[in-house]
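Predicting structure from sequence has reshaped protein science. With that in mind, we have picked out one protein's residues alongside their backbone shape tokens:
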Amino acid sequence: MSGRWKALASCVSGLLLLGMQVGALWAEWAPGEQLRPKGAVGGRLPDELLVQVKPGVTESRARGILNEFGAQVSDEIPQLRVKRIKVPPHALERILESLNAHEHMSFAEPNFLAEPMSIPNDYYYNSQWHLPKISAPEGWDLTTGAADIPIAILDTGVDPNHPDLQAKLLPGYNFYDRNTDTSDVRGHGTAVAGAAAAISNNGRGVAGVAWRNPVLPLRISAPDGYATYSAMASAITYAADHGAKVINLSYGGENYSSTLQSAVDYAWSKGAVVVASAANYSTDTPYYPAACNHVVAVSATNTSDQLTSFSNYGNWVDVAAPGVSIYTTSRGGGYGAYSGTSFSSPVTAGLLALIFSANPSLTNQDVLDILTQNTDDLGAPGFDSTFAHGRINVSKSLQAALEKRQETDTTPPLAIITSPSDGSVITGGVITVNVSATDNVGVTKVELYVNGSLHSTDTSSPYSFLWDSSQRPDGTYQFYARAYDAAGNTAQSGSISLNLTRPQTDTTPPVVSISSPPDGSVITGGVITVNVSATDNVGVTKVELYVNGSLHSTDTSSPYSFLWDSSQRPDGTYQFYARAYDAAGNTAQSGSISLNLTRPQTDTTPPVVSISSPKEGQRFRRKVRIQVSALDDSGISRIDLLLDGIALATEASESMNYVLKGSGLPKGEHTITFEAEDLAGNISTAQVTVYKGRKPRLSQ
């Protein structure tokens, strides 16, 4: 350590002691509480899906498809062609399966949830041990960062008034409230931001790894600390579009997401590096986004360069970094010690920003290589599943960055049209053109040209384009693709010819029939599925369903299936028929079927709730097992568990088994309430009183 940094370390150490006296250790977020947003089921939102529309599908067409499934678009990430849609919870799985099979959709998936990866620590350290451990003082002799290399902190927000952060905060965005207020709602984000980039050498507080790099605060969390995958994906694309070279996510979830991977790929294509916590479950199970491609996954080590007891590990992790008792900024202007991979991640993010700052000509792949190839090797020699490539080293990495002279990339990409084949005859409709494009560094975009004119552009692999020939005259059309890389090199594929030759006039109408339900069926309400069989000698273009003579809806792809909601309709007989069309305009109408809507008598009998455990007046200390069941002739839709009036859990079945932990509960009397609802909406409740600790004695 140079004399310059020794003096700084002495100053910071004294201020940290002051922080120990006046600071309050952040303890608002405790992962053990397993908070979960209202209505969340199995780590995902129960009424939301994320869908990616294929390139070339128009906005009106995409929304029309989604409307046919009863879905409403609530938000979208245009850079990824991903839409966030609301669907009826009872139909989510069916709609998910149908959209994944739809020819105009790339994928559909649930909107999963992620949680912060921190462990509040009760012990204050009087110095930032992790900085000399990673040779940061020696590295600062080489660079302390650059003001034009921002670090995006995707978290619970950042305290805008903290003296060690305020001057370097850029205008950010709040993806939960959809405004620009990025104030910290949990305290987690402020601590993460300070670990990465607290203002340093300013005579107060703590030192961040990246002294001069600004912070782009992006709030992704709800007030309880959880964040949806859609919020993370939106924030990643926002950060990449707003100049962030390093994007930190001290969050994780156990579910893979194509939306999240698409967002990471988008950021990578913009030259950014995403870094994320490996998670705190002491397992080799991958967590996301850390385990996504092009993400730096960071595990946590302690003061002895051992993997912490809580840190995840495995072959999917990239590097290790200090993650125990990291002294950093706290919400409210103070300082505290924090533990978790939530803090090994921003320490690494700070180093990545320094590498970019030391040599701005580096690509993100260069930066990633420098990070992983200049670590302190721990454990078994070379890469291992415990420490990955090793514990990060600031000095080694920055020396490598300065020594590396960026060689001009003069190698162009390689582009090939893989389908359709040259000379193919097409008879009309929408044609899919697939392009393979590769590069020694990376492809940034691929363009498709038709007869010498730009048709459309795709920025993510696989590169696929839709060409609508329906309004074009018969003839030969020339197609070629052009691929680009980050250095501006470009290459053109070979050209293919497609011969558009429409068949002679088709006068044969389709054959159409309603295959189910049978004519004369009695229905009792709800959503009815009407299946239609339609064939044509050339091809069916669409099928319409009519109810009592009025158009109900349209389907353009086989199998033809329609949903008819009878819930708001009066009892009676309804006439259904279908009409099929082909490309030549021929049409045919099916025979009509009658469906008799007859609802059963209203069920007004509430469920019967039986409590097996706990018993009335039962006393417990550490935990109490809860067992309850509900019976009803119409069936049970849910059982809710409330403790002292506060909802704890819900079960969509006729029984519930739950373990109520005593930790955090005050001693004394507690009321456990069960609320059961049947399928008709009738509700009944039952209560039992339990006591934590000794049951109060009755006065004599």
About this structure: The two ends are 73 Å apart (CA to CA). The longest helix spans residues 3-22. The mean pLDDT is 88. The chain has five domains: 3-28+116-403, 40-114, 414-500, 511-597, 608-692.
